[in-house]
Amino acid sequence: MDSEIRIPAGPVTLIGDLEVPHGARGVVVFAHGSGSSRLSGRNRYVASVLRRSGSFGTLLFDLLTPGEDETYSNRFDIGLLAQRLEAATREVLSRPELAHLTVGYFGASTGAAAAIVAATRMPATVAAVVSRGGRPDLAGEALRDLEAPILLIVGGLDYQVIGLNEEALALIPAREKRLEIVPGATHLFEEPGTLARAADLALAWFEASV
């Protein structure tokens, strides 16, 4: 099924693009970074790789309304963004034809922190988390509560973010956790082949955990 969906989230309604191949066993909900949207080309590429496997559907959605996004601080309100992820997850699983799917989260930049917080709030629902170029450190104390398997993917040239990910990983109690560094990649994985490598790593992680 392919459809544009509306996601009720408290006082606002968010727009998402939901695509689920026939026979998929799970759905990966994407959390974009600050200043981005469901139209992020990088996230859409990763989503296409996941769907082509036949195992996963994907939901890419706007975590903020256009009006909310104009307030810069909202982009870094991790608690608010996590609430939006929870709302999107509930909306997907409320559909009878999708209620059986297992859920994974894929977060980029600040979206990675939101994914971690939301996963700790929905431990029986979220089976795995993947972060690409993420800021898991912004999840704060939630790092100490994360039990879901988590993969942190960072560019080999993204030196500061490597350090932040190493520190965050040390705080996470999950039994399945790993940091993967993609050689030659900067923060946005714009270098040839680097985003494809990140997508392959994400797919393997979700296939093992979701």
Nearest-angstrom radius of gyration?
15 Å
Structural class: alpha/beta
Broad CATH class: Alpha Beta
Distance between the termini: 20 Å
- Strand ordering within the main sheet: 1-2-4-3-5-6-7-8
Order of helices and strands: EEEHEHHEHEEHEH
Number of domains as seen in the coordinates: 1
Q: What is the oligomeric state here?
A: single chain
Which band does the percent of strand residues land in?
25-35%
Q: Number of DSSP strands? A: 8
For this structure, the CATH topology is Rossmann fold
- CATH architecture annotation: 3-Layer(aba) Sandwich
Mean pLDDT: 96
CATH superfamily: Alpha/Beta hydrolase fold, catalytic domain
Description of the molecule:
Helix 1 crosses helix 6 (194-209) and helix 3 packs across helix 4 (110-121). The relative contact order is 0.15. The protein has a single domain, classed as Alpha/Beta hydrolase fold, catalytic domain (Rossmann fold), CATH 3.40.50.1820. By secondary structure, the protein is an alpha/beta fold. The protein has 6 helices and 8 strands; from the N terminus they run E-E-E-H-E-H-H-E-H-E-E-H-E-H. The chain has an 8-stranded mixed beta sheet, sandwiched between helices. It has helices spanning 41-52, 66-69, 78-93, 110-121, 159-171, 194-209; strands at residues 2-9, 12-19, 26-31, 56-61, 102-108, 126-132, 150-155, 177-182. The model has no long low-confidence stretch (mean pLDDT 96).
